[in-house]
Design goal:
Elements: H1 2-25, H2 33-40, H3 44-50, H4 54-79, H5 85-99, H6 101-112, H7 115-141, H8 150-166, H9 168-173, H10 180-198
Helix pairs in contact: 1-2, 1-4, 1-6, 4-5, 4-6, 4-7, 5-6, 5-8, 6-7, 6-8, 7-8
């Protein structure tokens, strides 16, 4: 009996994993349950056994996307307690972009599916977002970050990081290629941009208002496509 239950549980997990990949890469509207079942090599009725509607499946996918992203960031922060937390988070997000592009693609897709779906993702990420807001409030109170609405600041930074990491077409248009060196350079440039954006008034932006160790970013190398 336990074996049967375990097998059924694995089938559900496989469906959610495959849906996350499909929704994150192809898009929710562009993915049918028939195509998803075909990708998995199972009958459509097997998908409907676990998820009566496509929207029910979307709920499960959004919950898993939120949990996976929060877990990746929490692990990164736990492994580097003495480093600048914002830089650690940015590295973690870029690592996800390289290793699991569909995960960040799903975060971007959620923003296109309307406020109801976006609220589901936000609920799953609420503890992490609340910690980010508290961190900004502390840095602002210490004069190490320019005064602003901390929730909007977190929103801007999140949108910038996810957008830069996932907008492949925009990357292609500017002639940027996602090589290992290019990704490292992109992350450094993005961190410098965020640092300058949140620096307190009158700051030259050379330090690290985000906390932890800072300093000017390295230059790195970017390979541009030849047209």
């Amino acid at each position: 009996m336990a074996s049967i239950t375990g097998t059924r549980g694995r089938t559900r997990a496989r469906i959610v994993d495959a849906a996350l990949e499909a929704f994150g890469i192809r898009g929710y509207e562009a993915t049918s349950l028939d195509a998803l079942a075909a990708d998995l090599g199972i009958a459509k009725q097997s998908v409907l056994y676990w998820f009566a509607t496509k929207d029910a499946l979307l709920d499960a996918v959004v919950a898993q996307a939120a949990a996976s992203l929060v877990d990746a960031i929490d692990v990164a922060l736990a492994r580097a307690p003495d480093e600048d937390p914002v830089e650690v988070v940015m590295r973690a997000v870029f690592r996800v972009a390289v290793r699991r592009p569909a995960l960040l693609g799903m975060v971007r897709e959620v923003s296109r599916l309307g406020p109801e779906v976006a609220d589901r993702l936000a609920a799953g990420m609420r503890p992490l977002l609340d910690r980010a807001v508290a961190f900004c409030e502390q840095r602002m109170a210490a004069g190490a970050m320019r005064g602003a609405d901390p929730r909007l600041l977190v929103l801007f930074v999140q949108a910038t990081i996810v957008g830069v990491a996932t907008e492949r077409e925009a990357q292609r248009v500017v002639g940027w290629e996602p090589t290992a060196a290019g990704l490292a350079h992109l992350r450094r440039e993005l961190f410098a941009f965020v640092r300058a954006a949140v620096a307190p008034a009158g700051s030259a932006g050379g330090g690290s208002p985000l906390g932890g160790r800072g300093g000017p970013p390295g230059h790195g190398t970017v390979r541009h496509s030849q047209r």
